[in-house]
Automatic annotation (TrEMBL):
GO molecular function, one term: L-malate dehydrogenase (NAD+) activity
Binding of substrate, residues: R92, R98, N131, R162
Annotated catalytic residues: H187 (proton acceptor)
One Pfam family per UniProt: Ldh_1_C
Residues engaged in binding NAD(+): G11, A12, A13, G14, Q15, I16, G17, N105, Q112, V129, G130, N131
Source organism of this protein record: Peterkaempfera bronchialis
GO terms for biological process, alphabetical: malate metabolic process; tricarboxylic acid cycle
InterPro entries on file: L-lactate/malate_DH, Lactate/malate_DH_C, Lactate/malate_DH_N, Lactate_DH/Glyco_Ohase_4_C, Malate_DH_AS, Malate_DH_type2, NAD(P)-bd_dom_sf
Keywords: NAD, Oxidoreductase, Tricarboxylic acid cycle
Protein name, UniProt field: Malate dehydrogenase
UniProt similarity note: Belongs to the LDH/MDH superfamily. MDH type 2 family.
Length: 328
């Protein structure tokens, strides 16, 4: 039997945590032949609820689940971690300034990055879900100088999946006919879902849609504002779909993208497509053997350029803000 993979989940007692842990424990994150050990990190007020979730995990008798540890100590939670899902974050509350939000999250993601640096396994892969996800990932990455920067990623897979679903609906296609869609930039309202390189059943998706007005006035805003629409409808933010996207992100990273397709991940820029080196921005990526590569050589139209630049500018502003706050 294989040695278990250590998976650390922060914010384990939250609503995404509740939707995520059972899927990890059942083998959907890493595959049906990979046993897992769960390390759950919570703040002290969240420990009791995390214990309740752990009781339910026990009660599922998942054959692949080889143990659960619960702690409020980041050094313990990341000890030997192979995969870390950083879900817990400080949400923006009424009246909170952006600087306060960034500072509060710097206080979480700085120490967690350091704990990952000092205690995680050599093959550590980090996915940041907690918002502002890209900049939280940057903060954590900057506190982990001994870990290769490309191991810190931010989640835009939910945006990617939302865009695939909206495009499939528009074209009356099935979701698995849609390939090569891209989310560029920040996981925020400025993100740019790009269908110009996407394919529907092998044909160019933008040509199949052939409706720039729909693209600009319906598709892009629907994808970008989907999180707010879910809150409006459900009275709570996306949880199961966010957990599903986290599973997809890590599963794709570990197992590879299919031939003829790619996915979207927030990754450290190497300067591709004019995105400044070092910021964590969403790109089209292919993955293989646990590594990703940014898809190169795509032609970027003026329509796309303006939108990519706007989202990237927001990331630059966030980076400059956390820099001036001394958080990185
Ligand atoms: P919840 O408020 O339900 O849960 C968050 C949990 O994190 C709480 O149990 C809290 O005690 C815990 N926590 C807070 N600080 C912590 C710390 N320092 N260490 C460990 N745990 C800590 O939020 P939930 O709905 O689960 O969402 C979690 C995060 O995901 C939020 O930041 C949210 O904005 C973000 N999202 C990101 C998405 C993405 O696509 N990247 C989409 C979904 C979601 O909105």
């Amino acid at each position: 039997t294989r040695t278990p993979v250590n998976v650390t989940v922060t914010g384990a007692a939250g609503q995404i945590g509740y939707a995520l842990l059972f899927r990890i424990a059942s083998g959907q994150l890493l595959g049906a032949d990979t046993p897992v050990k769960l390390n759950l990190l919570e703040i002290p007020q969240g420990l009791k609820a995390a214990e309740g979730t752990a009781m339910e995990l026990d009660d599922c008798a998942f054959p692949l689940l080889r143990g659960i540890e619960i702690t409020d100590d980041a050094n313990k939670a990341f000890d030997g971690a192979n995969v870390a899902l950083l879900v817990g974050a400080r949400p923006r509350t009424a009246g909170m300034e952006r600087g306060d939000l960034l500072s509060a999250n710097g206080g979480i993601f700085g120490p967690q990055g350091k704990a990952i640096n000092d205690h995680a396994a050599d093959d550590i892969k980090v996915l940041v879900v907690g918002n502002p996800a890209n900049t939280n990932a940057l903060i954590a990455q900057q506190h982990a100088p001994d870990v290769p920067a490309e191991r810190f990623t931010a989640m835009t897979r939910l945006d990617h999946n939302r865009a695939v679903a909206q495009l499939a609906k528009k074209l009356g296609a099935s979701v698995d006919d849609i390939k090569k869609l891209t989310i560029w930039g920040n996981h925020s309202a400025t993100q740019y879902p790009d269908i110009f390189h996407a394919e529907v059943a092998g044909k160019n998706a933008a040509e199949a849609v052939n409706d720039e007005k729909w693209l600009a006035e319906e598709f892009i805003p629907t994808v970008a504002k989907r999180g707010a629409a879910i809150i409006e409808a459900r009275g709570a933010s996306s949880a199961a779909s966010a957990a599903n996207a986290a599973i997809d992100h890590v599963h794709t990273w570990v197992n590879g993208t299919p031939e003829g397709d790619w996915t979207s991940m927030g990754v450290v820029s190497d300067g591709s497509y004019g995105v400044p080196e070092g910021i964590i921005s969403s790109f089209p990526v292919t993955t293989k053997d646990g590594r990703f590569e940014i898809v190169q050589g795509l032609e970027i139209s003026d329509f796309s350029r303006t939108r990519i630049d706007a989202s990237v500018q927001e990331l630059i502003d966030e980076r400059d803000a956390v820099r001036s706050l001394g958080l990185i």
